[in-house]
User: Fold this.
Amino acid sequence: MAVSKDTEKGTWTSQIWVEDWQGKKKHKKKRGFVGKKEALEWERNMLLASKTDMNMKLADFVEVYFRDKDGELKQRTIRKATRKTRYESIGKRGKDYEFDL
Assistant:
């Protein structure tokens, strides 16, 4: 996990190594962030998305799920389902609710 500044362009770069579902290490890199805060946020989101732990919080799972479905579903569908999920699932159980298998 590293965030660095490209002095020539004046932008920030973030790169991480994540493990996929098969246990293989993958290198993820993104360039062109305006600020360091944005690069760190991207890094955090990528680590959260690649995490395959069933002990993650329900609110985090819902966020990752709808971010993954962003290109497949219409924005109206995502907005409606997100609102419904937040109210019915997260609202009743609380944002710190963890899956219980």
Summary: The helical segments are 36-50, 58-68, 75-93. Strands lie at 2-6, 11-19, 25-33.
